[in-house]
Amino acid sequence: MSATLEARPAAAFTVNPLSPLFAAEVVGLDLRQPLDPVTKQAVYDAFVRYHVLCFRDQALSQDEQIAFSIQFGSLERHIARNRSSGNPLVHIVSNLGADGKPSGKVGSQTWHSDKSFRPEPSLATILHAVTMPPQGGDTCFADMESAYAALPAERRAELDGLRVIHSWELSLAKKGIQAPPEEIADAPPMAHPLVRIHPDSGRKSLFMGEHASHIEGRPMAEGRALLAELEAFATQDRFLYRHTWRAGDMLMWDNRCLLHRADANFDAALHPRVLHRTCLRGTSPG
Questions:
Q1: More confident site: 4 or 106
Q2: Architecture of domain 3-281
Q3: Are 220 and 228 in contact (CB under 8 A)?
Q4: 41 CB contacts (<8 Å, ≥6 apart)?
Q5: Average pLDDT rounded to a whole number, residues 143-162
Q6: Distance (Å, whole) CA 269 – CA 102
Q7: What's the pTM value of the predicted model, to 2 decimals?
Q8: Fewer beta carbons within 10 angstroms: which end of the chain, N or C?
Q9: Among positive and negative, which fits the CA dihedral 272, 86, 187, 204?
Q10: Is the pLDDT confidence value at 6 over 80?
Q11: How many CB atoms lie within 10 A of CB 213?
Q12: 283 φ/ψ angles, rounded to the nearest 5 degrees
């Protein structure tokens, strides 16, 4: 590190674990301000260690959220149907209907890893709470590293080397939705390892979720049964962290080793739930 960088003071902040297994809150940073190199590295180190970081007491515009996000990598555009903000780099996660009122519907309630159908799946998702219900509307996370480590050794050996087909088209088909041709062309099926090695920590984890359709080279029904079995195991309470949102929270989580989902544990026809999402492009899982 150069003397110039060493001379720049690091911003003071604290990191407090939010659960025994993973997830932590970060207190004391104003993310509207650029991070100095030392602070940025410390935040990233905490991100790799805890998988989920919750930055408290933030109030960022869409442009400020983008500016914060790109300090850690390149932003991933969203699938065509999700460009609800007018900015292809920001997705509005919302239960509001076309009339601007709560619709009663909450999306993303199934376990998934963002952009797993891309050649370079998402490194991180950054989700900023704009308007939240007075209670509920939680986001749940499953630690796929701990789940993989908890499997019997012989089971882990069976899974190593398997590849999973991730597909936006087949993910929608599970819900009875036909993806339009432009979305299929934008996100063709992609094969990734079922057991993924984290590029920063070197730890192994299961890499699957809603967009994981089946196992490459195996009958679809057999592959889907295996993925369902593994998901049921990996989403036991002992591997989970549930985030109860506070006003001003901004979450940053590691898609390379987590599954997540929204919980509709609130009256979605009465209370708005609006968040701004950016995603950082990752690297090929191999």
A1: 106
A2: 4-Layer Sandwich (3.60)
A3: no
A4: none
A5: 98
A6: 5
A7: 0.91
A8: N
A9: negative
A10: no
A11: 23
A12: -120, 165
